[in-house]
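Support case: user asked for a sample of complex input and structure output to validate their parser. Sending the pair below.
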Amino acid sequence: MGAVRNISRRSFIKGIGLASGGLIIACNSNPFASEPKDLIEFNPNLFVQLNSDGSLVLVASRSEMGNGVRTSLTSVIADEMEADWKRVSIKQATGDAKYGDQNTDGSRSIRYLYETMRKMGATTRTMLEQAAAKKWEVSVEECSAKDHFVHHTSGKKISFGDLVEIAKTLEVPEEVTFKSKDKFKYIGSYLEGIDVPNYANGSAVFGLDKRVDNMKFVAIKRCPSTFGTAKTFDDSEALKIKGVEKVMQLDRVPRPFGALGGVAVVANNTWAAFQGKDALKVDWDLGANGSYDSDDYMELLTKNVHKKGTVAKESGNVNKAFRKATKIIESTFKAPHLAHAPMEVPNAIAVVNGDTCEVWAPTQDPQTARTEVAEFLGVEKENVTINITFLGGGFGRKSKPDYIVEAVAMAKQLNSPVQVIWSREDDIQQCYFHTVSSQYMKAGIDADGNVSGWLHRYAFPSIMSTFNPAADGPAGWENGSATNMPYLIPDMRVETGKAPAHVRIGWLRSVINIPHGFSVNVFIDELAHAAGKDPLDFRLNMIGTEDRIEGGEGDYKWNTKRFRHVLKQVAKNADWGKKLPEGHAQGIAVQYSFLSYVASVAEVSVKDGKVKVHKVHTVVDCGVAINKNTVESQMEGAAVFGMSLALYGKITAKDGAIEQSNFHDYQMVRMHEAPEIHVEIVDSDEKPTGVGEPGVPVIAPAIVNAVFKATGKRYHSLPLSDHNLV
Amino acid sequence: MTTLNVNGKKHSIDVDPDMPLLWAIRDIIGYTGTKYGCGKGLCGSCMVLMDGQAINSCQMKAATAEGKKIITIEGENKNLQLLQESWVKHNVPQCGFCQPGQLITATALLNSNDNPSERDIENAMSRNICRCGTYQRIKSAIIETVELKNS
C-alpha cells in the first residue's frame, strides 16, 4: 500500500478515494453530498467528514452482517485521528470502486483496510494539528491532538470542530505518522458495536425492512432443479388471491450471478405474493440437472477418490514411505451440501428509471451487484446506485447478487419499483450450496509412532463451476489448507478427483476449510490413536519444535510457532486431559485458515446414544485484534455455526430437487443445545488477519474426536444426526 | 375491516382475514422491527407479545388477533426495556436480525416468571434461532436483567 499522495486542494475538497489497488487517488464525487449544509464541513478524504459542531461522520465501506465491520473499520480511523468515539456516526458507502475493494467475504476487510483506515485517520489528525498551529501562530511540533481537541504545549486547547474552517484550507500532507501501539485507545479494546442499540430496539433497517414509494412485492417460483425452465404455467388460482396483481414469466439471466428465472407473482403485500406463488401450477422442463440425486452423487465422488486423481501437491515419495511404515491407516470422509440460511432471506428493492437504476439490498458485494445490474440493463455502472442495508446474516450467500438481478429485471418489466422477497423455502432450496465432498486419506505410522507417508485425495464440485459450468475439479485455491499445512510430512501426495456440479456451488463461511479441516483433524486423531499417542502430543510432534515460517499466502507466511501456541494454549485453557464426569470426553482440533490460527477443544458427553456438547474452548491468533468484543463474538458464533453443521447440516437432492425446505428439516443449534464457550485472543503485534470464518472449521472435528474418546466410535461422515447421535 | 391494537394504537386495516399478523404488522401497519424468518413458526424471528404472551406472529391470523393487545419490539413494556438495556451492555447482537424476536421471547419469560432458572431460560429461548450464534450472550443478558430486577 502506498503512502498518502499529495493532491491538489481542488481535488482534495472533492474528496479522495481508493483505487482497487488500495492507492489513494482523486475522484469527483463526495459521499457526504447529501448531508445537510448548515454546518461547515471538513472532508479530508472519502472516509472522514468533520463538522464545525464537532460531530464526526465516518464512512464504512464494507457490509455489516454481524461481522462488526462498521464499528471496527471506523474505530481505526477514530483512534488514529484522536477523535472521541461518542461523536462518531457512521455512513454506509454505496457500491463504488472509489472505496477500493468492498467485497465483504474471505475474512479480509480488516486485513485489506487496516493500514488505509489508519492513514485516513492520521491524515486528518495531522491536518487538525496544522490548523491549530496556524491559528495560534505556533510551530506544529508544539501541537498535539487528543480526545477531539488539539492541545498546545502551553496548556491551551481548541476543539476539533473549531478547527474545521482552517483545516479546510490546508493541503493534504504527503507523509503522516501513525500512533504508537501504546497510545491506542480503541484499537485492541472491547468496543460496543455502534449499531447494537438499533438492533435491540428494532429500528435497524435490513433489506426486508426498506420501503420505497409505490413498491410492489414480488415472489418468484423457480424450477426445483437447477437451471430448469417453465414450459407452461396456470395462474388462475394465484390471481384469485386478494392482493395479487399480476403473474409473469421471468427469464433466466445466464450469468454467474444472474437470475435463475421462473414465474413471478406481483402483489401489494408479501404474504399475497407468497400465497400466489404457492397457488401457481407450473409445468417444468427440469433440464440437465433434473436427475441429480445426491446419494448417487456421493457414491460417484467416493469412487473417484478411490482411484488415481490429478496431483495437486507431491513431495518426497509417498509409496516408499508407506512401505517403511509398520501400520497403514485408511479412511474415507464424507460431508454433504450445506445452505447458508441467514436469518434474513435474500431480498432486494430495485427502481429503474430509463437508463438509471437504484437498488437497496443486503449485499456483501455491492460492486459485483453494480456490475451485474449494469450489464443486465446495458447501461454504464455510473447509472447504477447500490445502497447497502444491514444484512441479517450473510455467510457468503449475500456475496452473490442473483436476487438483486431478479429485482432489477422485475422492476424493468413492470416499470415499477419492486421488492423481490425469497421465502425460507426458496432460500434453502435455491442456494449457492456449500460443496458436497468425499475424501480418501491414507497414512503410515512407523516404528517410532511417526507419520510415514500421507495421501489425501478428494473430490467435490468446485466453486469455479458457477463461473464455468464445464469446471469439474477444484481451482488451485480450493486445495486450501490440504496443500498448505504447517505439519512436517516429508512424503506427501495430494490428489483431486473429478466432480461435475449439478447445483449452483458457492462459498459458505470458511468454505473448503470445512471438509478439509474435518478430514485432516479427524484423521490425525486416528493416527495418534494408532500410534498409541495423545492427540495433542501427536499434533505437536507433527508440527515439530523448530519455528518454520513458510507456506501461507503472499506476504503472509504461516509460522509454526503461532500454530503450536494456539494448540498448547487451548489445551491449557481447557485443562486438556483432566478427569471428567462419566461419559464425558474432550476432543481437539487446530486449523490455519484465512491466515489466522485457531485451535478448539470440545467437551462432549454421549448418554443414551445422544451427544451433548458442554464446552468449547477456542484460542485464536489473528494478529492485531482491532475490536476484541467482535473477535470474541465471532469465535462464539463460529462455535455454534460449526456445531450446527456438525450435528445437523445436510442438504440432499432427489430428482434434481432439494429435499429440505425450512428449519424443521434443516436444523440449527438452539440455546438449550449451545455449549459454554471460552475464547482467548492471542496478544499479537502481527498484521491483522481473518476473524469471521477461521473459528468454524475446528468445531466439527473437535466434536467428532471427543465423541471417539467418549465412545470408541469413529465417525467419518457429517452430520452426526445421520449416525443417530442427536 | 380488521382492527388491531398494536403498541397502544388502534389500526383498522382491510386485509384478507387469513393474512398472518406478521404481514399485517410489517406490510400494512408498517412496524418492520418484527421479522420474517421462516413463515412456519420454527425460528421465532416474528415473535410479538399478545396479551403478554410471546407468539409467532407468522402463525396467527390477523383477524384472530382482533381485540388483543399486541406489543412489538417498537412497543413499551417494562421488562422489554430492561432487557434491551442489558442486550446493549452485553453486546449481544451480531447481525441483529433475530434479536427483536429473541427480546420478545425473553420479555414474555420475565413477564411470567420473576426468577427463571438457567434451565427455564434455555427452555423458553429454544423457540428462537440465532444463526450468528449469540446464545451465550443472550443468556447472560437475561440472567443479569433478572438479577437487576430482584436486587
